[in-house]
Amino acid sequence: MADRYLTVSQVAELLGTTERFPRRLIAERRIVFVKVGRHVRIPESALNAFIDAHTVQPIGHRRSSLRRAA
């Protein structure tokens, strides 16, 4: 299946941000993008990889080594 190419506004909508954030990612070369003439497109797979790379997993419940005084 072919990869879908997203516009900056589509990426911003999917991330729940303004267009400024994906544009900054592009300017800082922090995400893969494709230039088609003067247009910039972000492959959907690159967006998913970016999200996966920046997803923070929760820490399991740890018992504290410090106990409260009674």
From TrEMBL:
Domain Helix-turn-helix: 5-54
UniProt xrefs under Pfam families: HTH_17
Superkingdom, natural source: Bacteria
Keyword Cell inner membrane: no
Keywords annotated in UniProt: DNA-binding
Annotated SUPFAM superfamilies: Putative DNA-binding domain
InterPro entries according to UniProt: DNA-bd_dom_put_sf (IPR009061), HTH_17 (IPR041657), SinI_DNA-bd (IPR010093)
Any GO molecular function: DNA binding
Protein name stated in the entry: DNA-binding protein
Originating organism: Streptomyces lomondensis
